[in-house]
Please model this.
Amino acid sequence: MAEQVLIQFRADKALKQEVTEIYERLGMDLPTAFRMFMTRSKMVKGLPFEATLPDQAVTRAEAKEAFYTMRKQAAALPELSLDEINAEISAARAERSSK
Model:
């Protein structure tokens, strides 16, 4: 067995708790997840996921404006009954399966 070393770093407490819960739901503990991350990093010789900047950054003001615009558009839509919603879903599924 290879010699073991201790790795320590600081992280936000709430973030650590949230991530710990995610990995527990996947059946592993945080140290196992980090070992998997390091092993995969070694395999790909870099980060084990794409790490790129977005082509276009959206500002908080732009996102807020888009939200309010969509909310206005949604408010103008007619109310649908459950039967009408199910009919639309069925029609979309039928169209998709016919392709």
